[in-house]
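Hi Prof. W.,

I finally got the Glycosyl transferase family 2 prediction working! I wasn't sure whether to trim anything, so I left the full sequence exactly as given:
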Amino acid sequence: MPAYNAARTLERTYHDIPPGVVDHVILVDDVSRDETVEIARQLGIEVVIHIQNRGYGGNQKTCYLEALRDGADIVVMLHPDYQYDSTRIVELIRPIVAGEYDMMLGSRLKRQPGQHGIPALDGGMPVWKYISNRFLTICENAVLGLNLSEFHTGFRAYNRRLLETVPFLLNSDDFVFDTEMIVQAVQYGFRIGEIAVPTRYFEEASSVNFQRSVVYGLATLNVLRRMMLHRAGLRRYRQFSARLADVISPHHSEAILGERQ
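And this is what came out:
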């Protein structure tokens, strides 16, 4: 759980996690100004606290390094803002456990069987956010050769092999980190699937404002531009060619990657 000022929603998110499914919960606090850390500790969650704010992407980097260090075989990333239905973790990881996919996304835009309407809008997603999400997703599908309903979800799962391979430490410390993870997964030949998950938009749930969303959208398009240049051989980016073992400190690689590398 990458957390920043999640005190009002953390407990509800945590208690919705199905019992007996998750072996270990790690929360990385990015210098919250509320009681996020205290509540997490009361819930028995392992807490890692950043000395200074490292941003959304920087928070995830710590999350994945700690999960790898802990020996995780499957890592679920879940925003602790109660926007995503954590009861769906079982469905999310099932295709990874079965060996069908290496990465799974919980899509707010995908319809459940028999469902009508637009799920994200029914859950309260602002219309402008839905339109921008769809536009970016269409662009990403076209460039990456995928057919996903959403790329911009904060509910996803990875197998260990993917996290040990892609050089996610070279990614942005901002929100575009999520897009970079998908682009890297495609570049390194990993399989990506998705399930439909309901969304909840309400006052306490974290949400990126319009200005930040514009910055995020431009950053997403820039990632696609870099990927196309890399594929065409016009420019090389370590982000799309190195491996995690190449960019991690040798003083930490054994503890994090173990003997698997």
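The chain has one domain: 73-260. Does that look reasonable to you?

Thanks,
D.
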